[in-house]
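Sat 14:20. Reprocessing the chain from the morning session after the first attempt stalled halfway. Input below, unchanged.
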Amino acid sequence: MKITGAKVFVGGPGKNYVTLKIVTDQGVYGLGDATLNNRETLPAAYLTDYLIPNLIDMDPRKSEDIWQLFYRGAYFRRGPIAMAAFGAIDMALWDIKGKLANMPLYDLFGGKSRDSAMVYAHATGADLPDLMDSITRYVEQGYKAVRVQCGIPGMATAGYAVPEEVGGKGDYMTDFSGIIPKTEIWEADRYMRYMPQALADIRAKFGQELKILHDVHHRLSPREAAAFSKAVEPVDLYWLEDPTPAEDQDALRLIRQHSTTPIAIGEVFNSVWDCNKLIKNELIDFIRIAVTYGGGITPLKRIVDLAGMHHVRTGFHGAPSHSPISMAAQHHLNAWAPNFGIQEYLVLGTPECDALFPSDHVMQNGMMHVSDAPGLGVDFDENEAAKYEFKPGSHPIVRLQDGTMWDY
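Finished this time. C-alpha cells:
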C-alpha cells in the first residue's frame, strides 16, 4: 500500500482552516488539520513544499516511522509551524489506519473508557450581570461545566474573550478587519481586586454542582498568580487556566506552594518536552496541549500516558483554532484516555461548517458522544471547500496602560 498524493486546502466559513487530505493507491484517504491560528499559510507551505513530496510512495500504515522521520529528520525540531504540519499528517495516517481496520480510532487506542465525555462551554459578559445571563443560558442547555470571563470595571478595554457591550458576543475568532492587530489594555491590580469576588458571586448563584473554570490567559506574574490562586480557593474552581506564562516552569512551584486551586496549562505547548517537567513534578492538574500543535495523535497518546502516571488529567484545547478534524481526533482520545478530565468545546456546528466537515459526532447536554464510524469519523467536502479562500486576520495584542507590551 502506498501514498499516491496529498493536497492542502486553506479556508473555511469564518476561519482559515488548513486541511490535509492524503490519498492511497487503494482509494482510501485520510484527513488531518494543520490550522495554526493567524499563521495558517505557514504550515500549509511547509506541508506543500517539504513534507508532501517525501510522503509520496510511503506506506501509510507506518505512521510511527513517518512521524519519527519528519520530527527527527528535520534537525531544527519542534515549534508550532512544524508540529502543526506533522500533526496533520499523523491524524490523516491514523484516519487511514482506522478505515483499513474498519474501526473507530478509540478502538485502535484500546477501546472506550467512557460512553461520553464532558465538555465545557464559554460564558462571557461585558459585566458580571451579563456574564450571569450567559452562564444561565448554558446551564439551561444542560452544560455541567462552564468557563467564565467578564469585563473588569474601570479597565480601559473589555479584555480577553469579553464583548464590548452587554449582550454582545465574545471575540473568539480571528479579527478579519486587517493584518494589523488591535490592542487590549491590561491592569493586573484591577483584575485581582475584582475577579475573586465575581467568581464567588457566580458560585453563590449557581451552587456547588456547576463546574466553574476561569482563564487568566498568561497575564499574571508568578507572584500575582500565586496570590490570585489563593484568593479564589473558596470558590472551588474546576480549574484556573494559564495563570502565568509557562516558559518559566519553575514559577509554577510558587503557585503550588501557596494554593490548592487546580491549574490547567498547555494550549500553546508543542511537544512532550514543553510539559514533561510540569507533569513529572506534578505542578499542574490538567494538560491542555492540543492534537494539532502537539504534533498529532502519536505524541499525544504518549503525553496522556505520562500524565496518567502523575495524577494529571486531560483538558485538550478546543477553541476555533482547530477544525472539526482535529476535534474529532481529540474526541477519540477523550473516549479512550483513562485519565480524561474535560474537553473545551466551542460550537462549530454552523450549517456551513457541517457541510464542509460532515460527521456523526454528537454533543448533547454538555456531553460529547463520539462517532463509531471507521477512522476519525469526519469527512471533508472538496466542493464546499472551493467556496472559501484564505483571508488574512489577526488576534489582539496586549499592552499595559503605559504602553508596555504584555502577554496575550
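The first helix runs from residue 41 to 55.
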